[in-house]
Amino acid sequence: MAELEVAKNLKKAIEMAKSSQHSQIHKLKEVAFEIIIIVFAVSLSIYLHTWSEHREEKHQASMFLNGLSNDLLKDIEEMQSDLEAFRQQKILFTYISQLPNNAIANADSIAKYHSYLFSYTGLGKNNGRYEGFKSSGKLQYIENQSILNLILDYYEESIPLLKISTEYYKNQKTKLSDFVIDNSIDYPQGNLMKVLASEQIKNRCRIYLSSVDQIISSYEKCIDNCHQIIEDIGKEAH
Fold first, then answer.
1. What whole-number percentage of the chain has pLDDT above 70?
2. Which of 30, 38, 117, 131 has the least C-beta neighbours within 10 A?
3. pLDDT per position as a tens digit, 41-78
4. DSSP string for the chain
């Protein structure tokens, strides 16, 4: 519609400039008037287009942040479960690492934490919404730089560091599992308690598996990050 108006007024200005029925002063006034109308129409069109784009960007950013809050709530739930699992594993592997020489593991103590002996704990992928928004170049739609920085820190720094730590831990735990499987007889009633008290197992527990404070700290930091992002998004919505 604006383009038609511009074309119409531009045609008028050209016709007026070519007209021989009016004085030069009159023609200049009419042409200037048409040009003013053209400039106004173009400026208004640009403003409305920019306003409409900005409004759509804000809408998309708002929808993304609301969805992200739900994603982070799921992350918190999963991470709290993981965190408890690592705390229990720390107790188990600290106990094994401190067994006296020539002693065997207590069957009741091992039974209490048996589910943590060979299981693996790690944060699953729940970043599809973030990755999709990022890959489409829309992160810039988030106008609140504080929220954006928190989101970037969570997904680009905190989560990758957490996954590196847990993956390394998992590899060490796999080696422990392999040793137990290779050296156990009549599992689990056979010589499992003796195998768990072996120097190879105690050393691995002492060096790697009981030292999960960094992982626990990383989980706690990620959970705090999630709570802060959710809180700030809530404030922004109001």
1. 79
2. 131
3. 667 667 666 666 778 888 999 999 999 999 999 999 99
4. -HHHHHHHHHHHHHHHHH-SSS-HHHHHHHHHHHHHHHHHHHHHHHHHHHHHHHHHHHHHHHHHHHHHHHHHHHHHHHHHHHHHHHHHHHHHHHHHHTPPTT----HHHHHHTGGGTS----PPP--HHHHHHHHTT-GGG---HHHHHHHHHIIIIIHHHHHHHHHHHHHHHHHHHHHHHHH-SSTTTSSHHHHHTSHHHHHHIIIIIT--HHHHHHHHHHHHHHHHHHHHHHHHH-
